Amino acid sequence: MKNKIHDVIIIGGGISGSYLAFKLKDKFQDILIIEKSKVLGGRLCTKPVGSGLADYGCQYFSPKTDRLASLVNMLKKKSIMKKIDMNSKKDVFISPYGMNKIPQYLSLGIPAITNSFVDRIIRRDDNWDVQVGSLFLHAKRVIATIPIKQVAALLENSGLSTFKLPRSNYNEFFSVTFTSNKSDKVNIVENSKSLPWICNNKLKGVHNDKNVYTVNFSSELSANYQKLDTKNREESMRKVLHINGFDKIENFSLHFWKYGFSLNQNNISHFYDKDIHLGICGDSFSIGQVDGAIISSDKVYHEILSNI
Ligand SMILES: Cc1cc2nc3c(=O)[nH]c(=O)nc-3n(C[C@H](O)[C@H](O)[C@H](O)COP(=O)(O)OP(=O)(O)OC[C@H]3O[C@@H](n4cnc5c(N)ncnc54)[C@H](O)[C@@H]3O)c2cc1C
User: Which of 7, 18, 164, 225 has the most CB atoms in a 10 Å sphere around its CB?
Assistant: First the structure.
């Protein structure tokens, strides 16, 4: 085990990493995903709230590209995604058991180590050493599927900071989840200036017996909340929620997004260095969000196959 050399190590188990693993699994025997969180999914994340579930990251897929549309079709056939009516012109798809079921399905059967942060990657002879704390793993190819600022930090830490990478401006904000008896809530999604996203997960189509809400606070309010201690922050958030009509708020919890999402992006499609077998993909590439994540993963997949 000590000197085992994996065919591919994928850093990050979000939609980019799990989709790449899904594509590669028929071509390579030995793929490993390394994920810093306790579970796979990245920003496709769902948590229990009371007796229900809430998506607190990515809310839905609305494919702008054929590549994502074809993935959605496959997931629809497996009953992992379904179309919902959001009263918008675009097609909208959610996962009835939570958006995190998507990366979990895609990564089925692929070994993954979680709770493991990749600190450094080191090129040694013709392979890579991948450092996770005091543990060193080895691979022929390494693919980073993490937001570009985290890629830049990893490369710098590894003494590999000379690549041309895309630029991406992610917005930072708080998402909160809770149960409440807001009686006048009839729409799946609403918004106000302070709360650009108010979503009733039950109405959205997540299998819940009660109303479970996901609410995003504006970036401006979120910046102010960051300056407050935990108690005052929660009190202030609850007040704003109350003003927006939420009563009897229970099972309240929050998450701060440092890399939420970036809008209107059009970056290079992907990165792959065939001499050292280092790839980078994720939603910092291409048109961003889930479309960008899937397109860039697919491009890296083809680069890997062309450069075996
Ligand atoms: C609140 C919110 C709402 C959104 N809504 C939508 C939407 O409706 N539609 C849409 O298309 N997009 C939406 N997005 C954006 C979408 O979620 C992302 O574009 C997509 O999930 C990015 O996937 P990814 O795999 O590229 O990155 P991530 O999901 O961030 O995956 C990267 C993974 O790498 C891990 N990681 C990071 N550094 C390391 C390291 N050094 N070692 C090991 N692991 C590491 C992280 O823990 C993470 O799991 C939303 C995002 C947020 C936050």
Answer: 18
